[in-house]
Every structure is written in structure tokens, then in C-alpha cells.
Please model this.
Amino acid sequence: MGAFEVWPGPMEGVGRGGFIAAVNQLKLVPRWMTPFFRVSHELPRRRKLETFLLPFLAADVPVCVQLMGTEPELIGCAAREFVQMGAESVNLNFGCPSRQVSSGGAGGGALRHPEKLASFCRTVKAALPENIPLSVKMRAGWEDENEMDTLFQEVISSGVVSKIFFHYRTVKELYSVQPVEVRLSRVYRAVKLCRSIPLIANGDISSVTEAQELVSASGCAGVMIARPWLRDPYLLRRFDDASVPDAVSGRERFFAELKERALPEGALIELALMLWGRDSAQFKQLIAGKRG
Ligand SMILES: Cc1cc2nc3c(=O)[nH]c(=O)nc-3n(C[C@H](O)[C@H](O)[C@H](O)COP(=O)(O)O)c2cc1C
Model:
């Protein structure tokens, strides 16, 4: 098996400020995809766009900026500005399951109208310089995996999407636990539907071995890892360097780095929860400290 791409999964609400700086300092990612930047009814001021993007650009790794919304013209304008600031590629979020987002047709809500996907992608791509790649991040469907055929066909028929990031669950499945065979069969099917467009598989991939097995079984072009990466902060680095810290010491190193960053106490507690879990001594200690 040749080399394949490894991406950190975007995590809105987690991936900001001091967190990004700590990740950059420890060189934990080979590239970034930002969490979604939501564009609603008007183009945000440049200052707001800069505040969002600049922390990611501080590291010397390529940055893909992710956008979300229902108005492709506005999203195209914002994307163009992000590119002027230094984003190397643009991604559209067609997967966010939050009810607040998807009920209005943004994020995962876009999957309820497959017939609009191709023109959405074309409009955004037309706003970008020709050399800037456009990708999408999508789920297997709104409520049923059998939607995959139509969804992939529509996205691909746009002719402007150069990569597809695929979280194997449907929007309705949220983050529910699924048998491992479900992931493999959906990723396999997605790769076939993509034909020559590279597919990056996402969802519950928690080790290098598991990623390698998924790549060789499905033919996908790479993997994206979000929550398991937080539980094992050196996981993405381990694909190139087996000698990096293991999950236990990696969490300690990363958390020490986070503490240097003057994060609000609430944000630190939230990160401890994601790193170690609710039953961990580390999390309980922080909560006790807050109460005391
Ligand atoms: C707290 C949180 C925030 C997320 N924010 C985003 C986001 O901004 N954009 C996006 O495409 N996916 C987002 N996701 C989804 C993840 O990128 C990923 O697709 C999902 O967690 C499944 O992958 P995993 O099992 O590796 O975590 C988020 C997930 C979590 C848990």
C-alpha cells in the first residue's frame, strides 16, 4: 500500500484559539481543515474572517477552509477572501447534524435536496481562483444509506469537486455507535461511486493499523480522524513516525501545552473531557478544583 492522506477532522467549538496554537506548537497535524465557518445572510467583515483563519495559518502546513450555509454566492465570496488570506483549498460542509443548522437546510440539511448540490458546488467554485481545489464533506445520507447513489452522483456531476470527505453515518444517525462492518460497506460503496475522485474516509478510526486496513479494503485515498485524535493527540504524527508519545503520555504533553495557552477554565474542562472522558481522574480533578 502506498502513502495515503491523513487529515485532522474539523471540530467546531473545540478547534479554536489556544487549542490551535498548542496543536501547532507540538506539530500534531500535517495539514488543517478548519471547523465550519457559517455564512448566513451577508458577507462578514474581513476582520472576522481573519480572526477565524489566521490561527490555522500560523503553522507551516496547508490549510483547507470549511464553509457552511445555504447561499452559495455568499459562500463563494467568503471563500475567495479566505483564499486571498492564505487558505490553499476550500471545503463545503454537507454533513453537520445539529438541528439548529440542518433544519434551515445548511450542513447535513443540504442532503435533503440532492438536486441542488451540483449547482451549489459550481457557484462556489466559480468564485475561486482556478487553481484552488474545492472539496465537500458529507455523510451517507439524510436518513438512509440508500441515498448515497443519488448524492454522490449529484456532487460528482458538478464537475468541480476534486475530493470527497465522507463521514460514513447518515445525518439522522448523529454519532450513534454502528457495527464496524457498516463503515466498511459504506466506505467501499462510496469509493465505487466516486470513480476517479479521491475519497477520504471518516468515522471512528482510532489507530494507524485500522486506517491501513480500511484503505486497503476499500481503496479510499486517505483518512480523516477527529475525536480519536483528541484521545490520542500524537495519532496523526504516528503515521510517519512510530516513536512519538503513546496516547497516555501524549494526552499529558498536550494538556500541559494547552495549560500554557491561557484558555478559559471552561474550555480547558471541555478539552479534558474530550481527552480523558468523564470518568477520568484528570477530568474529576478539574471539576473539583472549579467547585472548590
Ligand atoms: C465537537 C465536534 C465538532 C465538530 N465540528 C465539525 C465541523 O466544524 N465541521 C465538520 O465537517 N465536522 C465537524 N465534526 C464532525 C467530525 O469532523 C467528524 O466528521 C466526526 O466526529 C466523525 O469522525 P470521528 O469518529 O473521527 O470523530 C465535529 C465533531 C465534533 C465531535
Q: What stands out?
A: The longest strand covers residues 32-38. The longest helix spans residues 180-194. The mean pLDDT is 95. The two ends are 53 Å apart (CA to CA).
